[in-house]
Amino acid sequence: QLQLVETGGGLVQPGGTLRVSCASSRHTLEYYTIGWFHQAPGKERDGVACISGSDHSFYYGDSVKGRFTISRDGDKKTVTLQMNSLKVEDTGLYYCAAGIPRITARDMCRRNETDYWGRGTQVTVSS
Fold it and tell me: How confident is the model at residue 1 (pLDDT cuts 50, 70, 90)?
């Protein structure tokens, strides 16, 4: 069973930056397809950034393109989402998800094709 833990959420002003991380304590994430999902209050969970476990391709949702970057850390057990130029509408819970390598980054983000979920971390963008 793969266990994912998200860290790094918090309160930030509009235009600010924040980094959230997804880690597995016991398993390498190197070959999993990993995604970050955003759930705003009262809304559905949407994929914002995903990275493939097979060809390491990326997918970004339209609302975050050019602002968010997903990357794998050198320890191979952590995947980070760097969030720049944050907007009030970025507020919500951010969940990390993992799936087997055959799941493409696009399918994970667009179709919520996942096998494992973390519990989420809260990001609040407010002045």
Answer: confident
The 3-class SS string of 30-97 reads: CCCEEEEEEECCCCCEEEEEEECCCCCCEEECCCCCCCEEEEECCCCCEEEEEECCCCHHHCEEEEEE
Average pLDDT over the chain reads: 95
1: nearest Cα among 33, 30, 27: 27
Cβ atoms of residues 80 and 21 within 8 Å: yes
Which residues, in sequence order, are bridge partners of residue 38? 46, 94
Q: Rounded to an integer, what is the distance from CA 46 to the centroid of its chain?
A: 10
If you count them, how many residues does the chain have?
A: 127
Within 10 angstroms of residue 92's Cβ, the number of other Cβ atoms is 21
Categorize the per-residue pLDDT at 96 as very low, low, confident or very high, splitting at 50, 70 and 90.
very high
Return the H-helix or E-strand segment holding 36. Answer: strand 33-39
d(CA 96, CA 61): 15
- The model's pLDDT over 22-47, given as tens digits with 9 standing for 90+, comes to 999 888 898 999 999 999 999 999 99
